[in-house]
Amino acid sequence: IAISVLSIPVLYLIHVDYKSFMSLGPGGTPQTPLGYLKLRFLSIFALSNPYEPPNVPRCCRPQKGVLTLEKSRKGPRPEVRGIAPHRQTTQKGGEKAYQQLCDAVSQFAREKNNQMKLGTSCFEKNSTGLFSTSPIALTCNGEICHAHPSDGSLHLTLHPADVAIVLEKGWGERHPLAKGGWLSRFVPNFFIMVYAPRDEEELEVVKEIICAAAWYVGG
């Protein structure tokens, strides 16, 4: 009887956590009990501090990135939850801002000299991704970035030195599984979330970050 009584609050907490997982919407992980259990296991290995910059490996060439980002993002960081899906739950950009972001991503692909194309995101599987047609960095099928319709944020892969600048200026944070090693089978080592642009001024900064991702992935 005692075991049964003690199991009630545990089952309740699992139920609440599962509902929280489902509330984030579709993403790279199936919205099933098995998908939930997979993420609970992976959460054991998640980054303890997503705002701590990664080290630049000695083998990384060049050692420096391309971002400068003179402006810092205004206000506090938004709340972010989850792993896959990994979502921004506050300070969302809105439908207009998201459409402007999608138009900007599409423009990158339309310019032939950029050697980029659009396709279904290899990571997200439920949104459009921007890909390099001749990638030199190891990402899923050369994916540069993808945006999330539900919150207006996006995921992309940067040079580790550029990751540090994005973190310092408050424009994003590292993905919970971006630790390298065996976790690289899920996301690249320098995979980050860039917060949803809230206006045209912030969109220009985000476009600059996408350019840096395209440079790192496509050369």
Automatic annotation (TrEMBL):
<dbReference type="InterPro" id="IPR040841">
    <property type="entry name" value="Luciferase_dom"/>
</dbReference>
<feature type="domain" description="Luciferase">
    <location>
        <begin position="141"/>
        <end position="213"/>
    </location>
</feature>
<dbReference type="Pfam" id="PF17648">
    <property type="entry name" value="Luciferase"/>
</dbReference>
<dbReference type="InterPro" id="IPR048273">
    <property type="entry name" value="Luciferase"/>
</dbReference>
<protein>
    <recommendedName>
        <fullName>Luciferase domain-containing protein</fullName>
    </recommendedName>
</protein>
